[in-house]
Design a protein that fits this description.
This protein is mostly helical and 338 residues long. It has 14 helices and 2 strands. Helix content is 38%, strand content 1%. Bound molecules: heme C (2 copies). The site of one heme C has 26 residues, from helix 4, helix 5 and helix 9.
């Protein structure tokens, strides 16, 4: 129940904070109850391996709160990789790319490393068809869900006005409602910006100055330290042409979407193919891309800004103890050493 109340608090907070969203403006007790029911249903779906061909792989296999909403692997390993998630996972369905952390993904208008999706709802259905992810056609997923009475009831409660309650659109909508709760915006940096000068120690403040001096903010734009821009960062490979795969524009060769730097210390390894093990090495690479050289202590300061100054996992999701299918959740006994 901790999760449900955390989500409720977040929904209330976001309804108060944004008067831009018409749905929030029109929100009454009834609609926020529905939003809550959808996010809670989405949480169960996100952790439930019923959505995969092998009955062992869930969204959370790759987007796990134990690994910063990623998986700790250089590149994702999809269905038929057993029930283990995190480093140590093995299997034949090795994907091409590193799993993005989902923090603040709701604020984006392009998703995936190459920007193939334009909304969470659209993105949420992509893993189903992919061999390297869930490998289960959406129609089969809907049939499996319809066979579980608990899901029938949960979908009917979350989507009372439309029949059938279990549909493609509602599946995408519930998963997205859950992902909208993955907000990270209460880091020490935020307290500092709000006027608490003591929230960042001197080294971290030096890192923040460097961040602007080196123009990192041109792409990793505050306050979320992300943007929907694409850029090639000297990490080309023959097998993955990035944005070019979608647009066919020569300038888009090897360009990838700018990832968020919020909570980035939680989701090593780095870059679109996970080729870089530590955050410090990743920062060093990005500094070189800016044609700059830093002293060791400057590099430490910049790394510390990202590792500590931008860390807020207060709204990490709660892993359900059980899911409606009754299937075992992905096994993930590891914890990130902090
Ligand atoms: C096998 C691992 C795996 C599974 C399972 C998986 N994902 Fe992902 N997810 C990825 C990878 C890898 C990407 C990046 C894909 C790309 O750029 O081509 C991604 C991208 C995303 C994104 C875009 C994030 C961004 O910042 O652009 C969202 C949202 C997402 N996944 C949600 C989900 C949901 C919801 C599920 C379950 C229905 C799911 N994923 C299942 C590995 C996985
Ligand atoms: C021109 C846009 C641009 C600028 C400027 C920029 N970055 Fe990046 N950054 C990117 C892109 C795009 C990626 C992903 C590249 C890839 O994986 O191929 C990235 C990736 C990263 C990553 C790895 C994140 C992850 O989750 O894998 C870190 C850390 C990072 N940048 C830090 C910085 C720092 C620090 C600076 C300033 C020194 C900086 N960046 C400047 C565009 C930019």
């Amino acid at each position: 129940m901790r999760a449900a109340s955390a989500i409720a608090l977040w929904l209330v907070a976001s309804a108060c904070a944004s008067d831009a969203a018409p749905s929030a403006a029109a929100s009454d007790a009834g609609s926020s109850e529905l939003a809550l029911a959808r996010a809670e249903l989405g949480r169960l779906l996100f952790y439930d391996p019923i959505l995969s061909i092998d009955g062992e792989t869930a969204c959370a296999t790759c987007h796990s709160e134990h690994w910063g909403m990623s998986d700790g692997l250089p590149r994702a390993i999809g269905a038929f990789g057993g029930s283990l998630s995190g480093p140590g996972r093995q299997g034949e369905n090795l994907g091409l790319r590193n799993t993005p952390a989902l923090w603040n993904a709701a604020e984006r208008s392009v998703l995936s490393w190459d920007g193939r999706a334009e909304s969470l709802e659209q993105q949420a259905l992509l893993p189903f068809e992919l061999e390297a992810e869930l490998a289960l056609p959406v129609a089969d997923a809907l049939a499996a869900l319809s066979a579980v009475p608990e899901y029938e009831a949960l979908f009917a409660a979350a989507f009372p006005d439309a029949a059938p309650a279990i549909s493609r659109m509602h599946l995408a909508s519930a998963l997205s409602a859950f992902m909208r709760t993955l907000v990270s915006d209460r880091a020490p940096y935020d307290a500092y910006e709000a006027g608490d000068r003591g929230a960042l120690r001197e080294t971290t403040r030096a890192g923040l100055r460097l961040f602007f001096e080196l123009e990192c903010d041109g792409c990793h734009t505050p306050p979320l330290f992300q943007s929907d821009r694409f850029a090639a960062r000297g990490l080309s490979s023959e097998t993955d042409l990035g944005r070019f795969e979608i647009t066919g524009e020569p300038n888009d060769r090897h360009a990838f979407r700018v990832p968020t730097l919020r909570n980035v210390s939680e989701s090593a390894p780095y870059f679109h193919d996970g080729r870089t093990k530590t955050l410090r090495e990743a920062v060093q690479h990005e500094v070189e891309q800016q044609a700059a050289t830093l002293t060791e202590s400057e590099l430490d300061a910049l790394t510390e800004l990202l590792a500590k100054g931008l860390l807020d996992i207060s709204r990490n999701p709660d892993r359900p103890e059980r899911v409606p299918s009754g299937l075992p959740l992905p096994r993930d006994g590891f914890r990130i050493p902090r």
